[in-house]
Specification:
2 copies of one chain form a homodimer. The radius of gyration of chain A is 16 Å and the shape is globular. Helices cover 29% and strands 26% of the residues of chain A. Chain A is built from 4 helices and 6 strands, in the order ααβααβββββ. By secondary structure, the first copy, chain A, is an alpha+beta fold. In chain A, the strands form 2 sheets. In chain A, strands 1-3-2 form a 3-stranded antiparallel beta sheet. In chain A, a hairpin with a 5-residue loop joins strand 4 and strand 5. At the A-B interface, strand 5 and strand 6 of A face strand 5 and strand 6 of B. Strand 6 of chain A pairs antiparallel with strand 6 of chain B. Chain B binds a DNA duplex through helix 2 and helix 4.
Amino acid sequence: MSDVLTILKKHHLSNTDSRRAVLEAFLQTEIALAHQDIERETKERFDRVTIYRTLQTFIDKGIVHTIPSADSGTRYALCRENCSEGHHHDNHVHFICDACGRTSCLDDVAIPSVSLPKGYKVGKIDMVVNGVCPECQ
Amino acid sequence: MSDVLTILKKHHLSNTDSRRAVLEAFLQTEIALAHQDIERETKERFDRVTIYRTLQTFIDKGIVHTIPSADSGTRYALCRENCSEGHHHDNHVHFICDACGRTSCLDDVAIPSVSLPKGYKVGKIDMVVNGVCPECQ
DNA sequence: GTAACTGCAAAATATTTGCATCCTT
DNA sequence: AAGGATGCAAATATTTTGCAGTTAC
């Protein structure tokens, strides 16, 4: 069974055209995708709204995560492991290349721990590095 | 001379109503402000567009910085020090409270260093912690 | 067959641009 | 006086919602 169907089954999601196409778009790339990238990758076969809803479903189920950014818009990437419904565990650093604009997950770089002042309860931690990627050097 | 005028003068900006009002809004709060917060704080005296342009000017001059977020929209906070035109040096952790929704700068918490794989050139690093703030515990 | 998913229309929200006018220096 | 800043109108972009028709199981 294909990866795509495995993922859908694992998360108890029905097997629809748009879910398969969006998942395939993620599996075929190393980088994080913006909503617009996904429309293009799926060859405009699906309505914009359907893609928004599909992405939201995937986020709810722990299949993809969003990457924070101050400048560019929201980007999405596959969760590599351990994410379950309603609870993301992404613990890796994200990298945004200022030259090519691409966002990627550095799956092998763990977010270092940080200690906050007394009274703060820590949930999720995001770390986003901007710079120049190896391809653009 | 007021803080506000000192800041404007330091960055060679003309002394206008909207710039004074926006700066005062930042000086009167501990938390990061969204565009909409600023409209409210300045009592809708200024056009939405003017506030966008004022904020962009402040970012360009190194007076405020934006805080990345995956969910909520862009938020802005004063740079405490060391930022100069075209170059931000914010090295502190940002905190977003999931209970009250407020975003704040933890000026005393430095972003820990992280080493990336060979080939990546590091520019800016952002760290955003989500959780529950002391007031909401 | 039924609940869930999709497409379309439209609303709501966010941000940018052009231009004429006004204000700061 | 001159250049920059502002307000208004409008364009553009992004995301959400309602609803009727379609599809997966």
